[in-house]
Every structure is written in C-alpha cells, then in structure tokens.
Amino acid sequence: MSLNDTPRANRLHIGLFGRRNSGKSSLINALTGQEIATVSDVPGTTTDPVYKAMELHGIGPVVFIDTAGFDDEGKLGELRVQKTEKASAETDIALVLFHDADMMEELAWVKKFREAKTPVVAVISQIDTLADKGQALAAKVKDETGLSAIFVSSADGIGIDKVRDELIRQLPEDFEEQSITGGLCDAGDTVLLVMPQDIQAPKGRLILPQVQTLRELLDRKCHVLCCTTDELDSTLALLKEPPQLIITDSQVFRTVFEKKPVGSRLTSFSVLFAGYKGDIDYFTKSAKKLADLPADARILIAEACTHRPLAEDIGRVKLPRLLKKKLGENIDIQIVAGRDFPRDLTGYDFVIHCGACMFNRKYVLSRVTECRRQGIPMSNYGVIIAELQGILDQVELPAKA
C-alpha cells in the first residue's frame, strides 16, 4: 500500500451475498470493470471471503467483499458460511442476490442485515437466464421484503449503472463524517503528539493511528509538533504557550500526565480511536466497572492485528501486567487476534479491545453490540489504561460519533 492509498479500514465495505453460482463474482467484475474475482461454473469457487480495494465512481474508495455462497454444504461448507457471516458484520452496504423463487435463505439474510441496520440492495442476477420468470421473482421480492430489486446481467452489462446509483443512494448518512479528534481541537490550535517508537512499530514508519491522526490535524489547520517521550520536556520548552492539546501513546499516559502543562488538555491515540471506531460512552462506563470484577475474573483481550507478539507487547504483556497489579494475580486473561472473536461471551466478565485501526467502524460496533446483548462490559486499551492509572476522569474524550 502506498502512502496515498486509503487504508482498507477507512473504505466503504460493500458485501455481496447469495447462493453459490448466483453471480456474485461476475457482478463485482462488472461493477469495477476489471476481472478481480474468479468466475467459474463450478459451485463453491469462492471459498474464504475475498476483499478487494477499489475506487468506485460516485463513491470513492471502497472494499468489495466477495463471499462464499450461504448455501454451501458439508463440514467445509459450514466453515465457509461462518466466514461469510463474519464478513457480514463489517459490511456497510449489502448486495443480496436473488435468482430463484425459493428464497428462504435470501430472506433470512435480508432480515439479518436489517437487524444490524445495514442497508440492503436487492439484485435479481443473471436475468439473461431467467426468461419470463424475472418479473414474478421481482414481485415476490417486493412482497416479502419491500425492496425494489434491480435486474442485472453482468454478462451483458444490464443494470450495472442502476446498482452503482443505488449504492450511492444507500450510503450511510454518517459515512466519512466520523472525526478522529472528535471536536477536541480547532484551526490554529497547537497540538503536541507524543509518540514513543516501541518495537511493535514498523522500522522507519509510524503506526497507522499516528499517521491518520496527524493527517487529520493538518487538514484541520492545526499547528502540530511531534516528539518521543524522552524529548517531551525539551519540546514543551520550545513553546511560548502550552499546547491546547496533547495526544500521547497510552503506554506512557501517566508519564505525560505528570509532565503536561496546567493549560493543556490530554488524551491518547487509543482513546481517540475508542470514539472513532467504537462506542466511547459504553467504553468509559464499562471501565468504571473494573473495580467490581471478582478476584477470579475472566478477561478477554481482543487485538485487531495478527502480528507476531514481541517482547513488551502492549496487549499480551503490558496490559495484562497492569490488570494483574490492579485486580490481583488470580484473574484469567485470554487473548484473541484478528477476526477470532467468540460468539458466546458469557464465559467472560470483561472484554478489552485494541484501538482497532485495522477494522472498519461497522465491524467494531458489531462486537460492541454483541457485548451489550450478552451483558458483558467492554472497553479499549487507552480507556482502560487511563482508568487503571487513575486519570480517566482527567482525560479528554472525543465527542461521540
């Protein structure tokens, strides 16, 4: 990925869902004008979900998700369907393909998306093979779902422009309106970024939250300074006036808190991403419940990245160390990475998520929804570290997105 590319997590995620050989891959190719998905008459050609970042005219940067057919069979087919379900959780707009009068599964998926408040576009695919059955099928889709289906023939290019237009119409109202800094700074403000470069940071590069926050601050016309923790004192000494805002890595929250000027507000990259990707209100309210956890509490730590753990890893070493110091050595900490997030959370007393810079907001909120539904408190790294160090009430929180 070049420096000019939009990160995948920040792109609109468009998922295609239907039975095997319903024309999902062909539709992606037709929408993008490129052969990016493998097309075959063999059922089950698409196995794991395939993610393809593209630019879609009228929308901009998007990710198409080509999923396995939700009618897949056998033990391997069940695993594929499970991955299709996981892909549905990060879908911003769902294209559901209909091709047969027996549409019980398609209707179940439409219901699933509506419960998740995910916009749905109904497509009657491969109309060149339907003969005179298309109108009757469209009427049934309308009667069962209230959706006006779009007729599509990817082979002949029929309906492709209508699908693009409907995708534009169905864009979530708040898409691209979320702000990382959440109203904490204005044009002309001086903002200091404290960015210790630990061993997890790629050599010669900044980590993604730092890059994205820096870019937003520049776009907001703020005056931005950057330093590492050991240069904090000398950097502050360069300024005639204290910076309006200091944004730090959560790992050095306490150090920066003790050194910050009285007139400066303090937050962290992870706290900002708690609002940008998740539910900041739920995360902060949940953090206050840490003190009430039992001595043998089971805590799940969820990382978005699947990097190889290194010494002093924040999620696997530093955060567990802080938790055990505060809550006792008898707590049981389990760690999952990537999309390995358990469906059943009832065996846990608390969930702590990373900043989730690699996930889109839709997917993080689906995890929040599951925690709420199952009555499990959930927070994120930055919010929890601030709470454990006794400074959460003095940390600036971004406005709720």
Can you tell me the residue ranges where pLDDT is under 50 for at least 5 consecutive residues? none
Q: How much strand content do the residues show?
A: 15-25%
Roughly how many Å apart are the termini? 28 Å
What general outline do the C-alpha atoms trace? globular
Q: How does the major sheet shape up? A: 6 strands, mixed
SS-based structural class? alpha/beta
Global mean pLDDT: 89
Helices and strands, in order, run as EHEEHEHEHEHEHEHEHEHHEHEEHEH
Q: Give the number of DSSP strands.
A: 14
Number of helices: 13
Q: State the helicity in percent bands.
A: 25-40%
What does this structure look like?
The chain has 401 residues and is α/β, with parallel strands linked by helices. 34% of the residues lie in helices and 17% in strands. It has 13 helices and 14 strands. It has a six-stranded mixed beta sheet, sandwiched between helices. Strand 4 (93-98), helix 3 (104-115) and strand 5 form a beta-alpha-beta unit. The longest helix has 16 residues, at 74-89. The two termini are 28 Å apart. The mean pLDDT is 89.
